[in-house]
Amino acid sequence: MDLLEYQGKQFFARFDIPVSDGRAVDTVEQAVDAAETIGYPVVVKAQVHAGGRGKAGGVKLASDADEVRHHATNILGLDIKGHVVRILWIEKASDIAEEYYASFTLDRSRKLHLGMLSAQGGVEIEAVAERDPDAIAKIWVDPVDGLTPEACRAWVADAKLNPAATDGAVEILSKLYTAYTEGDADLVEINPLILTDDGRVHALDAKVTVDGNAEFRHEWGDYEATQVRDDREEAAYAKGLQYVGLDGSVGIIANGAGLAMSTLDVVNQVGGSPANFLDIGGGANADVMAGALEIINNDERVRSILINIFGGITRGEEVAKGILEALDRVSIDAPIVIRLDGTNAEEGRALLEPHLSDSLQMEPTMLDAARRAAELAAARA
Ligand code: GDP
Ligand code: MN
């Protein structure tokens, strides 16, 4: 789950990371009230699940009530990269001497946490990585050992921040690592991490992604309430399906997240474009399959459907029965291509065989099935 900036700052504050005093509001009058309470100057900040708000006109300084009113009026309702602003964060303005970048995320290939720190903050880190990769100091942290104070200090030295920022940065980064691990985050990013004119180091922005699977350990109801999902994702979420909407025309149903991702790759590889990611989990019973087919059938982008199932504990004939029963219940507009492999696949395929037609096809391999689905989608474009 992606947090809005103000939620990220509240998350940081729980781990004692310094952030500015602020209030989340959703009307112009509340924005003015908040500013009067906080004291001027303030910053009026759009709260959307997108970066680059500053450039898009979603971050404005205000030094009196009229300016707050003016900016709040302009920013509420503003569309930033397809996200309409409904919430504002009003915070005490800071005097910035320097802007840095700091983050922790997981380096999956190394199976270690990765910290990144740069003296060139405030801009997109991707741009820094491209232009001047040496300007990003990296540290890999073994989760068993944690981030030691010595390692943290060496990392900060490596980033060549202003010496005045060293102690503050070491302190914040240690806390940020704690927030990242104990807070069950997949990503914590501060851009900019600032050095103020009076020598304090401070988080001016917050980008936090928490691992939804850890929800049972936390109280994350507020984060849930501000998640943005398109209509397809909302419907899939209501059915408890692991679904991500995409822009292509081949609807995908697969069992297991790994197989679902491979299916997307293979569809792309053969020149098709996936309409979604959808993992129906280990089993493939009729209820789940029917739900999955409904979600995909309601997606007007979909021109063909690829069902890619590898039977494991769930045997092939159960999968086949599930598919057939689901097809009895929901009528599907787009042609379906099935690839069924794994445990008892032959038995499963034998059950499907008599039902095959132009609108229900079967292919022996994942590659063949992806090709067929991509062709069908192209033909019906
Ligand atoms: P983003 O554009 O979505 O990353 O939003 P940020 O929260 O990072 O704000 C963008 C930029 O606005 C920052 O890099 C700062 O340069 C500026 N900014 C944000 N807050 C303040 C503040 O309190 N004082 C000043 N002077 N500038 C700020
Ligand atoms: Mn930022």
How would you characterize the overall build of this protein?
This protein has 381 residues and is of the alpha+beta class. It folds into 3 domains: 21-92, ATP-grasp fold, A domain (Dna Ligase, domain 1, 2-Layer Sandwich); 96-221, D-amino Acid Aminotransferase, Chain A, domain 1 (2-Layer Sandwich), CATH 3.30.470.20; 231-379, Succinyl-CoA synthetase domains (Rossmann fold, 3-Layer(aba) Sandwich), CATH 3.40.50.261. It is 37% helix and 26% strand. Helix 5 (149-159) packs across helix 6, helix 10 (286-297) crosses helix 11 and helix 11 (316-329) runs parallel beside helix 12. It binds guanosine-5'-diphosphate and manganese (II) ion.
Set down the secondary structure blueprint.
Elements: H1 5-14, E1 22-25, H2 28-38, E2 42-47, E3 59-62, H3 65-75, E4 79-80, E5 83-84, E6 87-92, E7 96-107, E8 112-118, H4 125-131, E9 136-141, H5 149-159, H6 166-182, E10 185-196, E11 201-203, E12 207-210, H7 221-225, H8 231-238, E13 242-245, E14 250-254, H9 257-269, E15 276-279, H10 286-297, E16 304-311, H11 316-329, E17 336-342, H12 345-352, E18 360-362, H13 366-379
The structure holds guanosine-5'-diphosphate and manganese (II) ion.
